[in-house]
Design a protein that fits this description.
227 residues, Alpha-Beta Plaits, 10-stranded antiparallel beta sheet, DUF1330 domain-containing protein
Length: 227
């Protein structure tokens, strides 16, 4: 008998309303975040959500749009739709408070629509923000489409989530109108084999001639227990 798959193994059809909640927080708050998630896990599930996990170190490759703070990590939570994501955030004992995890350092939160779920083994995420674009049509035709083909050659699960209308829920660090894209890789080495390849270098230079970009990579650990 085939092993029963977790729902996260299956692709979501493009018309799905699913979203990833991206939460950025300070390194030193990790234990408090993990403890809160341990208590909130059942509530997340009640709102049709699933905690994907917390990142390790965030690796910065490009930061034209804004400086990425060196002491920040990422938490990702999957929800079936934006309404459930917002309901959970507004009702959770800890995460609903602007002064959590501490008054001087609240969470930075935004939502990005999920295009499809990737293989569970691909827990290295590449988050790109493209902005200040001189010509979006030219960028799409000359970069986006060709970069997707290039990524196919490297077996990248590209465009797992994307939007030009990121929904900021609290102190969002992205700007509406910018293109946010989330790609998924097998590892940091897998990402770098693509990013530094000759095949991608020409596309990267073309992109840089048209727009600014923030580009960070992090690997999510689904184990929520404190190390």
């Amino acid at each position: 008998m085939d092993k029963k798959k977790d729902p996260q193994d299956f692709k979501i059809i493009p018309s799905s309303e699913a979203v990833y909640m991206i939460i950025r927080f300070r390194d030193e708050m990790e234990t408090r975040i993990r403890n809160a998630l341990a208590i909130s896990k059942r509530a997340v599930e009640n709102y049709h959500g699933k905690i994907i996990g917390i990142s390790g170190e965030v690796n910065v490759y490009e930061e034209d749009l804004s400086k990425w703070p060196a002491d920040r990590r990422i938490l990702i939570i999957y929800f079936s739709d934006q309404a459930n994501a917002v309901r959970w955030l507004n009702s959770d004992k800890y995460f609903k408070n602007d002064d959590f995890p501490q008054p001087s350092d609240t969470l930075q939160i935004f939502l990005i629509p999920v295009h499809y779920t990737a293989d569970k083994a691909n827990y290295t995420f590449h988050l790109q923000e493209l902005g200040n674009c001189k010509n979006w049509d030219k960028l799409n035709d000359g970069y986006v489409k060709n970069a997707a083909k290039c990524m196919d050659g490297f077996k990248v699960q590209h465009g797992a989530a994307y939007t030009t209308d990121a929904e900021g829920l609290r102190c969002s660090f992205v700007r509406k109108g910018n293109l946010m894209v989330l790609h998924r890789f097998q590892s940091i080495d897998h990402f770098e084999s693509f990013y530094y390849s000759k095949a991608y270098d020409t596309l990267k230079q073309f992109r840089r001639s048209l727009c600014d970009c923030n580009s960070v990579v992090f690997t999510i650990n689904p184990d929520l227990r404190n190390p």
